[in-house]
C-alpha cells in the first residue's frame, strides 16, 4: 500500500531547523548552544574555495604536539602547505572566539547541523 504524503512547504522545511525546534523541546533535548553565522562566514562557506582559517594552523600544531607526547607512532605531516605564502588568509576571530567559549564551557561537544539545505 502506498501512502501519498503532502508535499513539504518551505515553512515545513524551515521549521525543521534546529534553531527553530530546539527552544520548544529544550527540556527534552541535550543542552545546546546555537551559534549564528555572520554574513562573512556564510559567504566563505558558500564559496567554491575552501581554506582553513588562520587560527586552524595553531590548533593543528597543538594537536600534533599533544599526539607526539602521547604516541610513539607519530605521524609525520608535511608542513609544505602551511609554509606556502600564496595560501589565502581567512580569519573570523569573533566567530572563532564564540566557538572557543562554547568548547571551554562543556566537557564534551559535538556539532549539530541542520539536516536540510536550501539548495
Mind explaining what this structure looks like?
44% of the residues lie in helices and 0% in strands. It is built from 5 helices and no strands. It has helices at residues 10-15, 18-25, 39-46, 54-70, 93-105. It has 119 residues and is mainly α. It has one domain (10-76, 87-104). It starts with 9 loop residues before the first helix and ends in a 14-residue tail after the last helix. 0% of the residues are buried. The longest helix has 17 residues, at 54-70.
Poorly predicted regions are none
Mean pLDDT: 79
Q: Report the sheet-strand fraction.
A: under 5%
User: Count the strands?
Assistant: 0
Structural class per helix/strand content?
mainly alpha
Number of domains: 1
- Biggest sheet statistics: none
Helix-strand pattern = HHHHH
Q: Indicate the overall shape.
A: extended
Proportion in helices: 40-55%
What is the number of helical segments per DSSP (H or I, 4+ residues)?
5
Distance between the termini: 31 Å
Question: What's the alpha carbon Rg, rounded to whole Å?
Answer: 20 Å
Amino acid at each position: 500500500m502506498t501512502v501519498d504524503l503532502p508535499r513539504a512547504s518551505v515553512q515545513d522545511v524551515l521549521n525543521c531547523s534546529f534553531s527553530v525546534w530546539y527552544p520548544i523541546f529544550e527540556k527534552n533535548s541535550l543542552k545546546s548552544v546555537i551559534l549564528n553565522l555572520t554574513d562573512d562566514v556564510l559567504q566563505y562557506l558558500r564559496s567554491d574555495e575552501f581554506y582553513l582559517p588562520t587560527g586552524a594552523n595553531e590548533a593543528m600544531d597543538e594537536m600534533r604536539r599533544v599526539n607526539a607526547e602521547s604516541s610513539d607512532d607519530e605521524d609525520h605531516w608535511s608542513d609544505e602547505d602551511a609554509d606556502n605564502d600564496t595560501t589565502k588568509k581567512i580569519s573570523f576571530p569573533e566567530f572563532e572566539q564564540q566557538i572557543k567559549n562554547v568548547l571551554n564551557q562543556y566537557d564534551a561537544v559535538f556539532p549539530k547541523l541542520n539536516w536540510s539545505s536550501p539548495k
